Give the backbone structure.
Amino acid sequence: MSRIAALVVAWFVLLPPAAPARAAEWGTIVPGTSTTDSVRAQYGQPTKSQAQQVEGYDTTQWVYEGVQAPAGIVRLTVDFGLLTAAGYKKDVVRSFRLDPKPGVFNRTLVMDGWGTPTRIGRDGEFEVFLYEHGLLVYFDKEGRIAQALIFTPPQPLPAAPAQR
């Protein structure tokens, strides 16, 4: 999972959305809009907080787990620090990741909630849904139960290669 996720997250740190578009959201967190204050107001203090450097920018990562995680979620990880057309915004949500409890998000629920994915791919044994409005969903080996959901600002995807 981490290879694609790391590549996509790094891409979103440096590329602001091409056009104003609504990001995929969950639990009132909207990448590119929500801030440290709004996340703290909704979820309280994180279980863990870590300062990081991403592409030369100071960023922060908050983790909510155990009893501090939202209902149905094993771990909520929120990354702050987003480079926008207006400059770097240290306190704005860049991305967040949900690690749900088994069976909380199944394939049908994901499609009912966020629609048909823009692309469907694979990362090793795992099927991945990619939504242009800023969501990656990793499914189990059977492709039925979501293992991780990663929310980012919307980004236009490059055109698919022509098929012969």
